[in-house]
Write a structure and sequence with these properties.
73% helix; globular
Length: 270
């Protein structure tokens, strides 16, 4: 009947676009990272990390709109990762491999949750970051914990597993199981997914190696993306390797943006 009230929307209906915003936010962060890394390669530097990308966005002329949107989008991504891990929406199962993947999803939720809190600390004027106004106090507190020797060894194993899983996902084309797109679109997604997942996997393996070194030496120190890029820049042909990493991050950004549109958000299985 005309003018009738539509049926009440379920939480699935509003959560799906919320999750897709999260993939879009990840894509934007990696686009900025790719720009930093390629610029660093051209100037023989080492680039920045995710916090630098967030700081770049929050200090832009459109920050009043972009920053709250980024916070909400990162929150959506974190919640979706938790739903994926806890309710196993992608049918990973409870065997050792499946549990490892689900643990990786929780790790992803934690890392982007950290990035969300960092973004919020910048937006709120530093109230979370010990009143520094820059978010660095919050980042330093977390980095001090992560840099502790025993924690470094545990995180080294986790990063190694996640890095290997990224490369395996690219080589085996397992990402296709979660993409719902036409054959024509899928052919365009393939190079972005393969190149992007491999680049991210390699970075995770480098971080695992650096964390392992910290753990063995007992030193406390920050280990993250910027340190991994420093390591790559110091290798033979480091400038070229850094440029290739930037290109890989650009492909991962495109893959993330493709997921924002064509990823199966099968939250109904939760």
């Amino acid at each position: 009947m005309a003018g009738s009230i539509p049926a009440q929307l379920s939480w699935h209906d509003w959560f799906k676009p919320f999750a897709r915003l999260g993939y879009g936010a990840r894509g934007v962060v990696y686009l900025v990272l790719a720009f930093f890394i390629v610029s660093a390669a051209l100037t023989t530097g080492s680039g920045g990390d995710a916090k630098d990308a967030v700081r770049f966005i929050t200090q832009s002329t459109a920050s009043a709109v972009l920053t709250p949107l980024l916070i909400v989008s990162l929150a959506g991504y974190c919640l979706w990762r938790v739903v994926q891990a806890v309710f196993d929406t992608d049918d990973h199962g409870i065997d050792p491999a499946g549990l490892a993947v689900r643990a990786g999803l929780l790790g992803s939720a934690a890392s982007y949750g950290f990035l969300m809190l960092y973004t919020f600390s910048l937006w709120w004027g530093g109230t979370i970051s010990s009143g520094s106004g820059s978010g660095d106090g919050f980042a330093r507190t977390a980095a001090g914990f992560i840099g502790a020797g025993p924690v470094s060894l545990g995180l080294s194993l986790i990063f190694a597993i996640v890095g290997g899983a990224h490369i395996w996902k690219a080589v085996s084309r397992k990402y296709r199981d979660h993409i719902k797109a036409s054959p024509v679109v899928s052919r365009w997604i393939d190079p972005a997914a393969i190149g992007g997942l491999c680049a991210r996997g390699v970075i995770f393996l480098v971080i695992a190696f650096l964390l392992f070194q910290h753990g063995l030496s007992g030193e406390e120190g920050r280990t993250g993306l910027a340190d991994a890029l420093d390591f790559i820049a110091g290798l033979p042909f480091g400038v070229w390797l850094l440029g290739a990493t930037g290109a890989g991050f650009f492909l991962f950004a495109l893959y993330s943006l493709a997921e924002a549109v064509w990823r199966r958000i099968n939250v109904e299985d939760a």
